[in-house]
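Hi Q.,

Before the meeting this afternoon, I wanted you to have the S-adenosylmethionine prediction in hand. No need to reply - just skim if you have a minute. The sequence and ligand are here:
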Amino acid sequence: MRIDILTLFPEMFTSFLDGSLIGAARAAGLLDVRVTNIRDFATGVHRQVDDRPFGGGPGMLLMPGPVVECVEAVQRQADLGHLVMLTPGGRRLDQSIVEELSRQDRLVLVCGRYEGFDERVKAILAPDELSIGDYVLSGGEVAAMVIVDAVSRLVPGVLGDEESARQDSFSGADRLVEGPQYTRPRQYRGLEVPEVLLSGDHRRIAAWRHEQAVDATRRRTLQATGS
Ligand SMILES: C[S@@+](CC[C@H](N)C(=O)[O-])C[C@H]1O[C@@H](n2cnc3c(N)ncnc32)[C@H](O)[C@@H]1O
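Predicted structure with the ligand bound:
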């Protein structure tokens, strides 16, 4: 899968892309991630990318020119890809959207800054607007990293054991959260590992895990609704 990230702060991605699972997936040729600086598409001596909003108001907005020119230049390098604009007002990211994105051959992620994008960027490029939650970040870079990380896990070959992604929270048809897990030692500070997990009875273990996942999901829903 190819992922292009368009940002005013390319340096933020250096250690993120080189480390851990993503670094290994890139080295193995499973992921091709490229970062492009939006400022390279600004014109004028100062290579300005932002300006004051018409009608007044605080802060600066990204001017449409550098963003649109940057997206179009990157799209010309290969097939257009699925264009994502990171914005707090977009569709709220969840595992089903992550799965949808992981089925694309190419993603182009555009990170905003300052007070965000000029509306005409959306009119011209018709991006898929995505939010990583109902709060405001200073820029789209962290949101782009969240998407790259979550999507990469679902690219075939990236996880050593693909069963692990299938068993993760929010995965599978029932979208349950994962129940409790234990490793060694069997006893820690007086707390024991549940007997069923030591029984070697795989049917009982699977049934117990499912029960625990249903319970954890129900408790989470109750917390979210405040009931
Ligand atoms: C300070 S925010 C702009 C907020 C904007 N004025 C608003 O009220 O919706 C700057 C940039 O950060 C990114 N951003 C902030 N919060 C985000 C979120 N929850 N999800 C995705 N991107 C976000 C977007 O790219 C946005 O253009």
